[in-house]
Amino acid sequence: MTPQRTSKDEYYLGIAREVSTRSTCFRRAIGAIIVRDDQIISTGYVGAPRKTKDSLEHGYCLRDRLGVPHGQRYELCRSVHAEQNAIINAARAGVSLLGGDMYIYGGAPGAAEPISAVPCFICKKMIVNCGLGRVVCSKAGGGTLVFRLEDWIRDWQERDILDDQRQYGKD
Q1: Which end of the chain is more exposed for a tag (fewer CB within 10 A), N or C?
Q2: How does DSSP classify residue 131?
Q3: What is the tens place of the pLDDT at every residue in 104-139?
Q4: 3-state secondary structure of 45
């Protein structure tokens, strides 16, 4: 009997899950990896800018302290999103992302169950502009959500970007 082999999407999402364990956010543990030509070319997790104190070092979440709801007022967060860090880390290394795939895993810190890790609008715009082809996200309850960037673009051409049906925190 031949053992069942993990699919590529499950494999890479599992690696993104491991990356998420480095997150320094009290609210969410998110990890992202970018794969091109079946090779991991970049990783990123939620965390403060390099060489600055993160929320864990401060001992509190600024947005919690200010009463900011999830999915709002990201400019008041000291962290950089996992998707942004993966894109930034590729740029620091001089690696092209064109045609690659991003895998995003999210969960509550220390929790075993995934959340639907759909990127926020800011990250979606960055993902479109860097030229990725697909985004594969963890889904609450298990499984994945798979998005093709051409679908996001077509949808935004026909309607406003803010009418996007898949929004962070609403899946």
Answers
A1: N
A2: T
A3: 999 988 788 999 999 988 899 999 999 999 999 999
A4: strand
Contacts of 138 (CB under 8 A, 6+ apart): 13, 16, 17, 104, 105, 106, 107, 114, 115, 116, 117, 144, 145
Phi, psi dihedrals of residue 18, rounded to the nearest 5°: -65, -40
Determine the residue type at 75.
E
Question: In this structure, are residues 33 and 12 in contact, taking their beta carbons and an 8 Å threshold?
Answer: yes
Q: How far is CA 92 from CA 14, 45, 79, 88, 124, in A?
A: 24, 15, 18, 6, 20
Asked whether 87 and 120 are in contact (CB, 8 A), the reply is no
Q: Are 90 and 34 in contact (CB under 8 A)?
A: yes
